[in-house]
Design a protein that fits this description.
The protein is an alpha/beta fold. It contains 10 helices and 5 strands, in the order ααβαβαβααβαααβα.
Length: 290
C-alpha cells in the first residue's frame, strides 16, 4: 500500500473515531433522565441510611457546610441528602439573621452550640462563612472584620477537626446564566416565590463582588484539614448525585449488625367492634389517574 493510501486510510479511521465519540453521550454532562436519576438516588439513599446507622453505632460526629451563591441549589441538594434519613441524626441548621444580642457575641459563638455530638450528622445550610460572603458583599460587616474572620477561621476549624468532628465543606458553583434562569423562575412560579427575598435581588446585581469574596475565602480557608470541595450545580440532578456520592466517600462506614426483623402476630380482637362514631373524614376528591 502506498504512502498516500496509508495516510488516507489513517485519516478516514480518525474521522470515524471522532464521529463515534461525538455521537456517544458524555456520561458526566449528558442529559440525565428522571428515571435514571431516581434509580441512582434510591441506591444512594440506601447508603445514606447505612451511614446513619454506622454514625449512631460508632458515635461519629459529622459536620457538613454548604455554601454558594443564591440559586446554586443548596436547599435542593440538602433535601436530597436528608429526605430518607432520620432528622434526629441528620440535623439541618439554617440560622436566621442574628439578634441584637448575637451581634454582640464573638462571631462564631452562635454556630458552636449546633456542632454535632456523638451519633449526629449536622448540615449547615449556610454557616459561619456568611461573614466572608453575604456580610462582606452586602456591607453587613467591614472589610477589616471579614479579613479578621478569615485569619482566625482556619485555626478554629483545626480545633473542630481535632475534637473528633469530621468537617466537610461544599461550595456549589452555578453559572451566571443558570442563576438568572432560576431566580426568574422564582419570580414567575407561585410555588417558589417564598425563596425570593429582597437580599437575593441585591446580591444578584453583585456577581463579581461575590466572585472576589469567594476567591479570597478559598485562598484563606482551603486548608489540608478542612478543604473546600466544589460541586458544579448547573444540572441539579447531577449535582445532587455527585454530592451524595462524594460525601459517602469522605466518611468510612460499614454495616451495623442487626437481627432479621419479623413482624409479630397481631393480638386477637377479643370482642372489639368499631364504634358507630361520626368521624369527620377528609373529603375524597376526584383526582386524575396516571
Amino acid at each position: 500500500m502506498g504512502e498516500g493510501k496509508k495516510a488516507r486510510k489513517a485519516k478516514e479511521a480518525a474521522a470515524a473515531l471522532a464521529a463515534e465519540q461525538a455521537a456517544t453521550p458524555d456520561p458526566t454532562t449528558g442529559k440525565l433522565s428522571r428515571k435514571n436519576y431516581e434509580k441512582e438516588l434510591a441506591r444512594l439513599h440506601v447508603e445514606l441510611v447505612q451511614l446513619q446507622q454506622w454514625t449512631v453505632h460508632k458515635g461519629l460526629k459529622v459536620c457538613m457546610v454548604f455554601e454558594g451563591r443564591d440559586g446554586a441549589g443548596k436547599g435542593g441538594t440538602i433535601k436530597a441528602i436528608t429526605e430518607r434519613v432520620s432528622p434526629r441524626v441528620f440535623r439541618v441548621i439554617a440560622l436566621p439573621a442574628p439578634t441584637e444580642r448575637e451581634k454582640s457575641q464573638m462571631y462564631i459563638q452562635r454556630y458552636v452550640p449546633h456542632l454535632p455530638a456523638a451519633g449526629e450528622i449536622v448540615i449547615f445550610d449556610r454557616s459561619w462563612y456568611n461573614r466572608a460572603g453575604v456580610e462582606r458583599v452586602m456591607g453587613f460587616c467591614s472589610d477589616e472584620q471579614a479579613d479578621r474572620f478569615l485569619d482566625i477561621v482556619p485555626d478554629t476549624e483545626k480545633a473542630i477537626v481535632e475534637s473528633g468532628i469530621i468537617l466537610i465543606k461544599y461550595w456549589l458553583e452555578v453559572s451566571e446564566e443558570e442563576q438568572t434562569r432560576r431566580l426568574e423562575a422564582r419570580i414567575n412560579d407561585g410555588r417558589k416565590i417564598w425563596k425570593l427575598s429582597p437580599m437575593d435581588l441585591k446580591s444578584y446585581s453583585r456577581w463579581y463582588d461575590y466572585s472576589r469574596a469567594r476567591d479570597t475565602m478559598f485562598k484563606a480557608t482551603d486548608t489540608p484539614w478542612a478543604p473546600w470541595f466544589v460541586i458544579r450545580s448547573d444540572d441539579k440532578k447531577r449535582a445532587r448525585l455527585n454530592a451524595i456520592s462524594h460525601l459517602l466517600k469522605q466518611i468510612p462506614y460499614g454495616s451495623v449488625p442487626r437481627e432479621k426483623v419479623v413482624l409479630p402476630k397481631r393480638q386477637k380482637s377479643e370482642g372489639y367492634e368499631e364504634p358507630n362514631y361520626p368521624y369527620k373524614f377528609v373529603p375524597e376528591l376526584s383526582w386524575p389517574s396516571s
